[in-house]
Amino acid sequence: MASETFKKRQKEMARQTRQKEKALRRLQRREEKATAEPRTDGEDPDIAGIRPGPQPKLD
Predict the structure, then answer these.
(1) Could you tell me which of 7, 6, 32, 11 has the C-alpha nearest to residue 19?
(2) Can you give the C-alpha Rg of the chain in angstroms?
(3) Which of 26, 37, 46, 57 has the maximal Cβ count within 10 Å?
(4) Could you tell me if residue 30 is left (phi over 0), alpha (psi between -120 and 50 degrees) or otherwise beta?
(5) Percentage of the chain surpassing pLDDT 70?
(6) pLDDT value at position 27?
(7) HSE on the CB side for 51, CA within 13 Å?
(8) DSSP code, position 12
(9) With the C-alpha atoms ordered 31, 32, 38, 44, is the resulting torsion angle positive or negative?
(10) 3-class secondary-structure state, position 54
(11) pLDDT, tens only, 29-52
């Protein structure tokens, strides 16, 4: 019975640690977004140069 209590406590402590780490990552990401320079051209770099519709063949 005592080992069950110990396991439960260890599990809860691990959960709390993960939650704290997750909160830190969220805070860091929020700060990165706040300090990031805005895009000047307004175009998403991931989809730059892609046009709607069928794409031309590469060959």
Answers:
(1) 11
(2) 23
(3) 26
(4) alpha
(5) 93
(6) 96
(7) 4
(8) H
(9) negative
(10) coil
(11) 999 888 877 766 777 778 877 778
Task: Read off the pLDDT band of 14 (50, 70, 90).
Answer: very high
Q: How long is the chain?
A: 59
CA distance 47 to 39: 14
Which structure tokens are listed for 23? Answer: 């909160």
In single-letter form, the type of residue at position 44 comes to: D
One-letter amino acid for residue 12 of the chain: E
**DSSP assignment of 27-50:** HHHHHHHHHSPPPSS---TTSTT-
Query: Could you read off the pLDDT of 15-28 as tens digits, one per residue?
Result: 999 999 999 999 99
